[in-house]
Structure formats: C-alpha cells, structure tokens
Design goal:
Elements (H helix, E strand, L loop, with lengths): L11 H20 L2 E2 L2 E2 L6 H12 L3 H33 L1 H14 L8 H7 L3 H26 L3 H9 L4 H39 L4 H10 L3 H29 L1 H6 L1
C-alpha cells in the first residue's frame, strides 16, 4: 500500500484566503471604519487578539475551560450519535417506525436547542447535565435526518439481490443497509459535531460557570474585546478540527469509497 502525501498545492489557496481575511480584519480594525450600520471602532486588531491568545495559552484557565467544554460536547455528541443512528436506521428501514417515531420527532426538530435551555434547567437538577442535554438536542436531528436519507437512498435492487442470494434480514442489515448509509451517516455526524459546539456555547453563556462559552461571555461582561475574539476563534478551531476528525475516521471506516474513486 502506497502512502499518499498531501499535495502542497492544495494548501496554497486556503492559505491565501486566510491571509487575505486576516489582512482585511487588520485594515478594518486599525482604521476604525464606520460602514453605515457597522462600526469597527471597538474591534480588536489581529495583534491584540494574538497577544490575548498567548496570555491565555500561558494561563491555567485554558485547560480548565477547555476540559469542561470538551467533556460536555463529546458526552452530548456520543449520546446523540447512538440515538440518532439507531432511530434513523429504524425509521428509514421500517414502516412502523416511520409512522410512530417520525411525527413527534418532526414536531420537535424545528425547535432550536436554545429554546430547550429553560426546560432543561427545570428537568435536570444539575446544570452540567442540562448543558450536556442541550448539546445532545443540537446534534441529534442532523444525525437522525442524515441517517434516514442514507437508508432511503440505498438502491432497492441491492437489497433484493442480497435476499435472492439467501442473506437473512440481519445480514442484509449489516452488509447492505449499514455500508450503503454509512457516507450519509458520517456527513450527519460531522454536521452534528459542529452544531454541538454552537449549542454548547449558548448553554454555557446562560447556565455555565466554566467552559469556552462562559469564558467568551465573561470577556464581554468585562469588556475584554480581544479575549472575546480569542474565545470565538478557539470555538471555531475546535469545531472545525472535531468535524474534520470525524470525516477522517469515516474515510478510514469506509475503505471501499477510496477504492471506488
């Protein structure tokens, strides 16, 4: 097996895009422009954010906040992955599950995770559990819908061929349904992970005392504008990295997709 090295040219355009974004940010922040309804008078410059980020890296607060946020995200995401994949496989495959489980889930799906925060505080005696529940709700529906669409998109001729060859229902499920729906499931997991971070930050701003979201909100109340951007960028990097990690594991778990390419 040959090891494929990353193509250096593939990093050129993203690098140029990031540099251009930082340069535009620097120009807008240092010039204190007023663009109609938008003003950059209080926006911190990239240098100020860089200095604030270095201070946070040297502070014990980083690991403290980061540890709480990572635990909440991955606990909620793991529960959502198990529930979303199991429900999605059942709804996508069995008519009785679609008729009984999908209607109440469709009613709950449009409700934003933020709206669950007051109820979660009432339902769970621990604020920690309530924040994990918010991340669970945020990740559940992207995973659920992606799994359903993945199962529904499987060619019925594949299932019929497996049955004609003598495969029993469980073998059809494990060797046809699951592999066929796996790409959509991985996509749903990656989207759900990003939604987890979005919901976690909102929950930590309202109910938390520790975490990256709480750090960002605390920086706003203390008017440490550079620290606000540090928290935002840290959330973005963590969300992007965790979603990329899921896609990487998905490619490793689906070697047949690489072979087909």
């Amino acid at each position: 097996m040959s090891l494929r090295l990353p193509n250096p040219a593939a990093w050129v355009l993203p690098g140029i895009s990031l540099l251009a974004s930082v340069l535009l940010w620097h120009v807008l922040a240092t010039s204190k422009l007023h663009l109609g309804l938008v003003t950059f008078a209080n926006a911190p410059s990239p240098r100020e954010v860089w200095d604030a980020g270095l201070d946070l890296l040297q502070s014990p607060k980083l690991l403290f906040h980061l540890g709480h946020s990572l635990w909440r995200v991955f606990a909620g995401f793991a529960a959502a992955a198990v529930a979303g994949i199991a429900l999605g496989l059942a709804i996508g495959r069995f008519g009785w599950a679609r008729g009984t489980l999908l209607p109440p889930l469709e009613v709950l799906r449009p409700i934003p995770a933020v709206a669950w925060i007051p109820l979660s505080v009432l339902l769970f005696p621990s604020s920690e559990v309530s924040m994990i529940f918010i991340t669970f709700v945020g990740a559940l529906f992207p995973i659920l819908l992606a799994t359903i669409h993945g199962v529904e998109g499987i060619d019925a001729r594949l299932v019929a061929s497996a049955r004609s060859l003598g495969a029993r229902r469980w073998r059809v499920f494990t060797e046809v349904i699951l592999p066929g729906a796996a790409p959509a499931i991985v996509t749903g997991l990656a989207i759900g992970m990003g939604t987890c971070w979005f919901c976690l930050v909102t929950a930590e701003m309202i109910s938390g005392q520790f975490g990256i979201g709480y750090y960002t909100w605390e920086s706003y109340t203390l008017q440490n504008y550079a620290n606000i951007v540090v928290g935002m960028l840290l959330i973005g990097v963590l969300g992007m990295g965790s979603s990329a990690l899921i896609r990487t594991f998905g490619r490793l778990a689906m070697p047949w997709r690489g072979a087909s390419r």
